[in-house]
Amino acid sequence: MYEIPGKDIGLTQGDIFAECPIVDWIRSTSDVWEPQQYTQNLIVLTQACDLGNQKVGRVQVAIVHDVKQLVATNVVRATTVKDQIRTHRVYGLYFLPEFANYLPESIVDFRDVHTVPRELLEECIGKGRRLIRLATPYREHLAQHFAVTFSRIALPEPYETKP
Hints:
Blueprint lengths: L1 E2 L11 E15 L2 E13 L3 H5 L5 E9 H6 L5 H8 L7 E4 L9 E12 H9 L3 E5 L3 H14 L12
Antiparallel strand pairs: 1-7, 2-3, 2-7, 3-4, 4-6, 5-6
C-alpha cells in the first residue's frame, strides 16, 4: 500500500509529509484576519500527471491527523473510526492504515485543504520530511474519494417511497 521514495524521487500525488509548514488565517480582532504559520502532516492531492509534467507551481494538500489524537481529544469516536471511517463511508475523511515506524493510523481531512508552493514541498523532500507515499491503486482511491467529496449533488428532499 505504501512506498518509501528516496530523496532523488520527484513529488507526486499521495506523498505524505511530516511537519511541513503551512499558512492559515486566524481572527485577531473582530474585523482583522492575520496569517499564522505552523507545521502539519500533509498528503499531496494534486494529480500525479500535473506534478510529473511540471504543470503546477502550487500544490493542493490535505491535513493528515493521527487517529489516536483525534479520539483522545473527542474530535471523533473510536467506534466511528472503526465502523465508518476505516471503510471509507464518511465523506470528507479518508482512512490511512498504520505503516511500521513511518505513519500511525491516520485520517486525511478533505475539509482542511491547503495550497502550498511546489518548491516548499521539494525542500521538505530534501530535508527528509517526506515519510512515504501511497502506491497505486491506493493513490487513485484517495483521488476518487477526494473527488466524490466535492462533486456530490445534494437533492433538496429525499425521494418519496411507497410503504
